[in-house]
Amino acid sequence: MIPFLSWKNIWRNKVRSLIVIAAMTFGIFSGLFTSAIFKGMSDRRVREAIGKEVAHIQIHDPKFLENPEIGLTLPDPGGIVRFADALPGVKAAVGRLKIVTMINSSAASSGVTVYGIDPDREKEVSELYAAVYDSVTLAEKLKLIDPSVVRTYLKDSTGSWFAGSLRNPVVIGESLARKLKVRINSKIVLTFQSADGNLTGGAFRVCGIFRLENNAFEEMNVFVRKNDLAALASLSPDESHEVAIFMKEPRMLSQTMHSLRTEYPALDVMDWKTLLPDVAMLDDLMTVSMVVIMVIILAALGFGIVNTMLMVVLERVKEIGMLMAIGMNKLRVFNMIIVESVLLCLTGATSGMVIGAAMIGIFGRHGIDLTAYAEQGMEAWGYSAMMYPALPWNFYLIVAALVIFTGIAASAYPAWKALKLNPADALRTE
Amino acid sequence: MNIIEINNLVKIYDDRKSVPVTAINGISLSFREGEYSTIVGPSGSGKTTLLNMLGGLDEPTSGTILIAGVDLSQLKSREVIDFRMRNIGFVFQAYNLIPVLTALENVEFIMHLQGRPKAERMKRAKDLLAQVGLGDRMNARPGKLSGGQQQRVAVARALASKPKFILADEPTANLDSRSAETLLDIMEKLNHEEKITFIFSTHDARVVARAHRVITLEDGVVRSDVDYPEH
Question: Is A328 on the interface with B (CB under 8 A)?
Fold first, then answer.
């Protein structure tokens, strides 16, 4: 009956309660939506980084990342791939050659890392192929009526993921293409030191240009067929500098890492968090930051609740005196005020969460387009200018718990004031 | 049989900021079970102070109050609240109903505090409201009831806990004469038929006229204590 009485008490002064509820609704909605934008950005960055850049796990020779010498290949990379493929939770593993080279076009040159990959195998596991502008993608983007017809006529002229008949095809990033002033079918030259110590190089034709949200990755990495690179580097196509592992079940990452480290103690087995500490740190900090945002908002709202609940107690001194007189003990009086405050907060918070969830759902599907304002700046840091707000469901539970805590904390002082009332004195008040 | 024993009761208000005021100055009284008594006296004579101490709402400076053999001064504050809930009913001058609850819920509320089951609460609350003539206004909130009706709800609420006695502080002060007479008829009937003990504090001659015992206070002492068995 105490919660029933507390709930009825809220609606004694409808205007005042509705103002508090509106403030709580707006505060919770703002906090959730802001958190969802940051969480969406972070999640997208992590997804992009894993799916298109580093994979979940990479295995190298222990010295390779420090000093990527061409001779530091993995022992029996095929065996590592087979072992990893057989682990539960793993989608697939791929072996790659990875060589630091100079890339030259007729207009410019740059230092890049060239990956020698098996395009078909890579397509099965990595999402990078989807970032290549091919004719169908372009036709869809340009809203042409039948993209497949466009493909028939344009064939690979707008680029593809290693499809077509070009000799020594290479896929490069859009930023690098811009820097080198090259386009599809342009010739570029890769120059590097081969495994036998000689300076070597080869001409490649740009067969595809990929577009990511990370300009730095676009500019620093190019992809060629493993056979082509191995031939130039005096390596066997069976050799690999890196085995990249993609997880089907990301939650089994640490278990997979443990199995790999146990099996290959002499090799460097690193997860994406170690490979991209900035992204990992942001991901780890995101939940804490979101909670901090909510705590700040709720603390500000809490002061308003303190004020409201103090007014509630001061307005009802006589009634509280009567309740004490007829036998309501102090704990019940205290609870009545606390519950009233918590219900007031939860009413506002629930509407804020419903509106927030709806808006996050809508913008999460359609995105918030900031390309007109911040595309270059954000992509320079690896973030998309298209924001897709997202929030895990358990964050709503955390917010609900924080709201309940706020309701209790904000009404503790007013409730304590009520406890200090002497029923005889309280009954005498007008 | 005496239900209340007051021995040499003294109450001095001393807030250390102003001159101490002696509100009750050495009163000794007793009340029998089933009495219909009235405490009268001018403003400031100590009526409300005495009633507050009888109800355990205020503590005496010295002296003792025994209610059904229990010395209130020996109880902890938590025990006093519990004792009050189970043994004493209150009717206040300003009705003091909970405005957001219906008449039925107001009567039921104290039984909820006592931890009685819902079915029992509902039955007793309905019976009591019918007894005070409000069987058809059970679902009305206090704001929709007249002053007299509200005070009748307050009487039903006071009876709900099955108290040993009811303290009524100026219960008719805010009522018109017709409502006051109706209320007094109900309380007198309850006293006569169910032996409910009533102790009034009042200025109202209509209450005094019906009382079986009139205690006059003046300056915190009993000036007279007269029985009217013929009432």
Answer: yes
Q: Which residues contact A183 (CB under 8 A, 6 or more apart)?
A: A177, A206, A209
Query: Cβ of A327 and B161 within 8 Å?
Result: yes
CB B92 within 8 A of CB B154: yes
Which chain B residues are within 8 Å of A332, Cβ to Cβ? 113
Name the token pair of A333: 């009086």
CA dihedral B36, B41, B43, B47 (to 10 degrees): -40
d(CA A22, CA A321): 31
What's the rounded Cα separation, in Å, for the pair B80 and B58? 10
| CA gap B50, B58 in Å, rounded | 9
CB contact at 8 A, A306 and A411: yes
CB contact under 8 A, A427 and B92: yes
Query: Would the ipTM clear 0.85, i.e. be above it?
Result: yes
Q: Give the C-alpha separation, A3 to A337, whole Å.
A: 10
Q: Is the dihedral of CA A345, A346, A352, A357 positive or negative?
A: positive
- Asked if A14 is an interface residue toward chain B (Cβ–Cβ < 8 A), one would say no
Task: Report chain A's C-alpha Rg in angstroms.
Answer: 31
Length of chain B counted residue by residue: 231
Asked if A318 and A429 touch (Cβ cutoff 8 Å), the reply is yes
Residue A385's contacts (CB-CB under 8 Å, 6 or more residues apart) are: A213, A369, A370, A371, A373, A374, A375, A378, A379
Any chain A CB within 8 A of the CB of B68?
no
CB contact B102 to A (< 8 Å): no
**Residue type at position A287:** T
- Nearest CA-CA distance, residue B52 and chain A, Å: 7
Q: Which of B195, B188, B208 is nearest to B162 (CA)?
A: B195
Q: Could you list the pLDDT tens digit for every one of the 231 residues in chain B?
A: 789 999 999 999 887 778 888 999 999 999 999 999 999 999 889 999 999 999 999 889 999 999 988 998 888 888 999 999 999 999 998 888 999 999 999 999 999 999 999 999 999 999 999 989 999 999 999 999 999 999 999 999 999 988 989 999 999 988 888 888 998 998 888 888 888 899 999 988 999 999 999 999 999 999 999 988 766
User: How much is the pLDDT for A19?
Assistant: 94
- Model pLDDT for residues A8-55, shown as the tens digit of each residue: 999 999 999 999 999 999 999 999 999 999 899 888 888 888 888 889
- Domains contained in chain B, number: 1
Identify the three-state secondary structure at position A52: helix
* Residues of chain B contacting residue A324, judged by C-beta atoms under 8 Å apart: 81
B117 part of contact set with chain A, CB < 8 Å: no
Calculate how close chain B gets to A318, using CA atoms only, in Å. 8
B80 touches chain A (CB under 8 A): no
Residue of A nearest to B158 (CA): A326
* Contact status of B173 with chain A (Cβ, < 8 Å): no
CB contact under 8 A, B96 and A11: no
- CATH number of the domain enclosing B47: 3.40.50.300
* Tokens read off for A79: 């065996």
**Which token pair is A268?**
């460097």
**Interchain contact, B82 vs A329, CB within 8 Å:** yes
Of B84, B100, B157, the CB nearest to A12: B100
Question: DSSP letters along A283-300, please?
Answer: HHHHHHHHHHHHHHHHHH
Shortest Cα distance, chain A CAs vs residue B42, angstroms: 17
